């Protein structure tokens, strides 16, 4: 097998497109023949596509594990999964919408996060994940990894969406909660709920985080991912609640 270590783009084949929620899709790419890759936690990879109106467009996306329930760290795979939200406007979304099964997609090697600290992850007694929208994507891998390979006594995930139709991987996370009932807790919030929705109401706020987060201790580690406004608001609130900056990682 040839392992991807250089920067150059590789041509992959689009094997499958699965709709997960409103405007959110999972794309499964097959790597070139006899090629495998080990995707590290918290990394991103660039997609590059040709567009009819311009030469090419590219954007980074976070690969996720093929299975949240059979997760194996440091294992090599011949396929990659990406969860992507497609927007009405935007060059990359327009190019991705034109893709169909069997088409080619160029992907770069994976780029790890410069600020992610695996030592803190493994030394943390509690892990807190704050996600909004498709900001849940890195936690689709980080959650099973943390449950299997760290000794954190509790993993708390607060997930924020606008509507019920925006939620994805609900069943996958529910199964993880059933399997790790003593260690994993998930709370979902909707900012524009229907009357029949059972999820809690609200956007990220001082009141919500103060109610659901434990009092800060130096061996806690918090991860935030979502739109820029969400990440900035969550980080500001944590600062107001006296969480130390070096205990917070923003994807």
TrEMBL record:
Could you tell me which InterPro entries the record lists for this protein?
CBR-like (IPR001834), Cbr1-like_FAD-bd_dom (IPR008333), FAD-bd_FR_type (IPR017927), FNR_nucleotide-bd (IPR039261), OxRdtase_FAD/NAD-bd (IPR001433), Riboflavin_synthase-like_b-brl (IPR017938)
Which cofactor does this sequence's record say it needs? FAD
- Annotated ranges, domain FAD-binding FR-type: 7-119
- Is Oxidoreductase among this UniProt entry's keywords? yes
Q: Which GO terms describe its molecular function?
A: oxidoreductase activity
User: One of this protein's Pfam families, by short name?
Assistant: FAD_binding_6
Keyword field contains Disulfide bond? no
What the entry lists under SUPFAM superfamilies is as follows:
Ferredoxin reductase-like, C-terminal NADP-linked domain (SSF52343), Riboflavin synthase domain-like (SSF63380)
Question: Keyword annotations for this protein?
Answer: FAD, Flavoprotein, Oxidoreductase
Q: Its domain of life?
A: Eukaryota
Q: Which CDD domains match?
A: cyt_b5_reduct_like
Q: Gene3D superfamilies under this entry?
A: Nucleotide-binding domain of ferredoxin-NADP reductase (FNR) module, Translation factors
Which residues are noted in the entry as FAD-binding?
59-61, 83, 85, 92-93, 137
| PANTHER family in the record | NADH-CYTOCHROME B5 REDUCTASE
By what name is this protein known?
Cytochrome b5 reductase 4
Q: Which gene encodes it?
A: Cyb5r4
């Amino acid at each position: 097998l040839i392992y991807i270590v250089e920067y150059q783009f590789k041509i992959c084949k689009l094997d499958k497109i699965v709709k997960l929620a409103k405007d959110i899709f999972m794309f499964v790419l097959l790597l070139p023949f006899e090629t495998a890759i080990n995707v590290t936690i918290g990394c991103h990879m660039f997609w590059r596509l040709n567009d009819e109106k311009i030469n090419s467009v590219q954007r980074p996306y976070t690969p996720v594990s093929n299975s949240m329930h059979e997760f194996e760290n440091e294992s090599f795979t011949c396929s990659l999964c990406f969860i992507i939200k497609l927007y009405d406007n935007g060059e990359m979304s327009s190019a991705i919408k034109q893709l169909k099964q069997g088409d080619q997609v160029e992907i770069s090697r994976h780029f790890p996060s410069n600020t992610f600290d695996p030592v803190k992850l493994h030394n943390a007694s509690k892990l807190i994940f704050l996600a909004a929208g498709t900001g849940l994507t890195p936690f689709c891998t980080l959650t099973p990894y943390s449950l299997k390979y760290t000794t954190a006594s509790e993993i708390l995930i607060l997930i924020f969406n606008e509507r019920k139709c925006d939620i994805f991987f609900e069943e996958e996370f529910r199964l993880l909660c059933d399997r790790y009932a003593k260690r994993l807790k998930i709370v979902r919030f909707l900012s524009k709920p229907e009357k029949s929705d059972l999820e809690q109401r609200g956007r990220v706020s001082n009141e919500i985080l103060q109610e659901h987060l434990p009092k800060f201790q130096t061996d806690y580690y918090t991860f935030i991912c979502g739109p820029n406004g969400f990440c900035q608001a969550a980080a500001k609130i944590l600062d107001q609640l006296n969480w130390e900056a070096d205990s917070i990682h923003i994807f």
